[in-house]
Amino acid sequence: MTSTSSRHWLLPVLLTRKVDRTSSISDVNCLRLYETTRELRDQVFVNKILHRLFRHVTDDDSPLTVLLSHASTDGRGVALAVRKYLHECTDVGDFLDVHSIAAGERLVEAIDRAISASAFLAIVTDSYSSRGWCRHEVIRAKRELGPIVLLDGVEDCDERRSPYLGNIPVLRWKPDSPLVMERLLGLLLAESFRHRYFPRQVAWLSRLQRVDRPYYCLSRPPEPLTLLELRRRSGSVETDLTVVYPDPPLDSEETRLLHEFEPRMRLMTPTMLFSA
Fold it and tell me: How far is CA 189 from the centre of its chain?
């Protein structure tokens, strides 16, 4: 995108190979949709916009990085296929265990550091939930309160689906499907952009509505593990804490259950917060 003012952006899109070299966009890196098949064109267009918006709301304009969490016994082929597509067809980076960890570096430290700086993709195959490393990565990602997407590659049976893989988008894996790859990328970008943008939106609305109560922002609806992490971060504060998550609101039954788990936290969406 090129900036035309402080509030507007221009994204040149080419539908054919022909371009006027004398035009004002002749030196701009355009989105070449003519290189994309018609089946993928809409999703690719959305993904390019999402990635540019994501980079716009980061401090250093850095591209998205995706951590590929997988079980090596039956998920490595899927992880390598996703990694290959990211390398060859997108401008998104990736983190894949031994490929991304320097020799001699401590595994836990390197993986935890990558989880805190990346979108987390759980590639769930038949053996995923039974692996200690995978459980560690999922719990760590949930405690980071960051963007998480589940790619469901179970072929036969998942005997113990992790209880910590809830409240996240799920996509079914299909081998050799560029459309699934682009849809997966779209979910990762949408979750990552929401994670960066939603707190800023709430802060802006708070200033606009002159709401000065303390709150925590979650980019996904709350659940027991995320409330446990917020309780840890808030320390021994005795007063009620407001947790703001995106609309729509949870239903009354789920809200009562979460309130039973953590009674001092008030769960609200922006609509609820700013209409109170």
Answer: 6
Residue-range domain boundaries for the chain = 1-35, 39-193, 211-275
Residue spans of the chain under pLDDT 50: 1-2, 4-5
Measured between its terminal Cα atoms, the distance across the chain in Å is: 39
**Residue whose entry in the numeric block shows the structure tokens 């692996």:** 131
Chain length of the chain? 276
Q: What is the pTM of this model?
A: 0.89
What 3-state DSSP class applies to 123?
Answer: strand
| Opening angle at CA 197, ends 193 and 199, nearest 5 | 135
Summarised one tens digit per residue, pLDDT across range 231-251 is 888 876 566 788 999 999 999
Q: Is the dihedral of CA 218, 133, 112, 262 positive or negative?
A: positive
Q: Which amino acid is at 208?
A: L
> What's the token pair of residue 58?
């980061």
CA 257/CA 263 separation, integer angstroms: 10
Query: What's the CA gap between 74 and 125, in Å, rounded?
Result: 7
Q: Let me know: does 65 contact 117? Beta carbons within 8 Å.
A: yes
pLDDT tens profile 95-143: 887 666 666 678 788 889 999 999 999 999 999 999 999 999 999 999 9
Distance CA 38, CA 85 (A): 18
| Residue 23 CA neighbour count, 13 Å, CB half | 11
Q: Would you identify the CATH topology of the domain 39-193?
A: Rossmann fold (3.40.50)
